[in-house]
Amino acid sequence: MRLVLLGPPGAGKGTQAQLLKQTFAIPHISTGDLLRQAVKEETNLGKQARAYMDKGELVPDELVTAMVAERLQHPDCASGFLLDGFPRSIAQADALADELTRSGKRLDGVMSIMVPRADLIERLSGRRVCRECGTMYHERFDPPKRAGVCDKCQGVLYQRSDDNAETVSARLVVYERSTAPLLSYYGDRELLYEIDGRGMPEEVGQRITAALNTVPATHRS
Ligand code: ADP
Ligand code: ADP
Ligand code: ZN
Q1: Ligand nearest to the CA of 208
Q2: CB neighbour list of residue 173: distance below 8 Å, 6 or more residues apart
Q3: What total of structural domains would you count in the chain?
Q4: In the annotation, is 50 catalytic?
Q5: Could you tell me if residue 124 is inside a domain?
Q6: Most Cβ neighbours (<10 Å): which of 43, 53, 134, 148?
Q7: Does the CB atom of residue 134 touch ligand 1 within 6 A?
Q8: What is the CATH number of the domain that holds 183?
Q9: Nearest listed ligand to the Cα of residue 153
């Protein structure tokens, strides 16, 4: 399966990717996670990406597409992948299509997770992430057993620096301007599946699984 999870910040892409990974043995590729790692390690890419991420803007297409192209070469992607947070612009979608065509492959589907704006803001403002293992929590909707501590590894939970009110608004504007056009891009290519992202994560996961079952066999690989 070669899938894309599309959706505004806070829609639950990372959360759904974690659930889907248990069903399909394919790697979860989050460009946000890869970029945060690069920033942490102060690589060349990280140094260039940081300022954009702090402002909630998109990191330039060339940098992100090169990073993804490299990641897709890894042997674990041979049986498929789950892209989370990429593509985020038409230029990135074109680059992905070219990359796949070159290796005789294609996407199976693009799952677009839709959540009302007020819920996005609520989800982002309460998001907490484990510094050690990356597990996602929410202050109210999915709190850890012990405040500030990861259930799985006892790691410390932190709030992403871009999950503050001002940067969140900027990210939502960027989504509308640069990423939302992908809905008709993938709709035109008959790859788009619109998923209602409201409700419990498990319910949303069931909607995605149901949508996956309608992917035409010719698209499945
Ligand atoms: P979100 O929770 O908003 O979906 P991500 O973790 O996916 O956040 O992304 C965090 C930041 O990393 C973005 O605001 C952007 O600066 C950068 N980023 C992630 N993916 C991309 C991409 N495909 N293109 C450009 N920038 C990206
Ligand atoms: P994205 O990757 O799209 O930015 P996340 O998966 O990180 O979104 O989810 C954002 C926040 O919302 C996290 O704190 C997560 O625990 C919470 N969350 C995810 N899905 C749901 C849901 N269905 N209902 C309530 N909260 C959710
Ligand atoms: Zn942890």
Answers
A1: 2
A2: none
A3: 1
A4: no
A5: no
A6: 53
A7: no
A8: 3.40.50.300
A9: 3
